[in-house]
Amino acid sequence: MENRSRSGYGAVTKFLHWTMAVLVIWQFLKFFDRINDGEHWVGETLVSWHISIGTLALLLIVLRTCWTLTHRQQRPAHEQKMAFLVNAGHFLLYLSLFLLPVTGILRMVGGGYGVKAFGWQLIEKGDEVSWAASLGSLHSPFAWVLLILVTGHILMAVYHQFVKRDGAFARIV
């Protein structure tokens, strides 16, 4: 199904990677909500999709994790000394990409709001749930962690492309 080799990623992996990249960038637009209480074009148009896009991102990161775990033997090879850092970095990215929407859902449920995505009520409104609200309070700190990890990921891609010139970026495009 996937045409990949040890020197590059296949179409499914590339699709999942770049789709997640677009969704994560979209979600980072939520930071604009802090400017002028969201009273601007970004806050009034794109940010309103935050919960729906986060729900989609959760589904895709679960799918991507399953895909990665079942196709580990086909991943491109890395220099042995870098393999640990590459694997640790990707593990932290995947973990953050999973925990961020989960804590977002817990934040909504904890506040009694329920969860509505793309017009579908996935979790009904109800009473406040204190333990969910407590765990949900980690949503914003996790967003900052993910921002740092994504920035590091992008900087490493730029480093590989323009400093090392080792073709690492070409594997995923």
From TrEMBL:
Pfam families, A to Z: Ni_hydr_CYTB
Subcellular locations according to the entry: Cell membrane
Keyword tRNA processing attached: no
PANTHER family xref list: CYTOCHROME B561 (PTHR30529), CYTOCHROME B561 HOMOLOG 2 (PTHR30529:SF1)
A single GO molecular function term of this UniProt record: metal ion binding
GO cellular component entries: plasma membrane
Membrane-related topology note: Multi-pass membrane protein
Transmembrane region(s): 12-29, 49-70, 82-106, 142-162
Keywords (A to Z) from UniProt: Cell membrane, Electron transport, Heme, Iron, Membrane, Metal-binding, Transmembrane, Transmembrane helix, Transport
Cofactor: heme b
Single biological process term from Gene Ontology: respiratory electron transport chain
Domain of life: Bacteria
Residues of the Cytochrome b561 bacterial/Ni-hydrogenase domain: 9-173
This protein's name: Cytochrome B561
Family the UniProt entry places it in: Belongs to the cytochrome b561 family.
Organism this protein belongs to: Advenella kashmirensis W13003
